[in-house]
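note to self — DONT lose this again. spent like an hour looking for the file last time. sequence + predicted structure for the chain T wanted, 139 res
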Amino acid sequence: MEPRISIVTIAVDDLDRMAGFYEAMGLTRHRIRDGVAFFQMGGAILALFPRPSAEEDAGIAFGSAPSRVYLAYNTRSEREVEEVLALAEKAGGRIVKPAQRAFWGGWYGYFADCEGNVWEVAHNPDFPLDAEGNISLPQ
């Protein structure tokens, strides 16, 4: 197996509301087929799939609380952390943890989207981003 994550899928209760949230965050929705929303995010894809369809497809029932998995968006600067958190709040999300100095030396905060899925927004100068926004671990 090659080391990569290709698609992150969130099982959502309200596809239109959630797609609107991420569009308000500046992402572009790709309409490949009805009933699912796809957003290109660098070298990966964020997919929103209605919970009943996701449960049928996976053959399991997802709980109603957000999962223990959270997503992360790394920025190019500390200032951008503040900008992304403000954008999330304006788009209908909730600030979970305001931007602050991290124990590891960077600058970070958390928001929840309109269905409670948690995102960390961080500037970590030890995890550089290339020109396309791809992150890499320190050498």
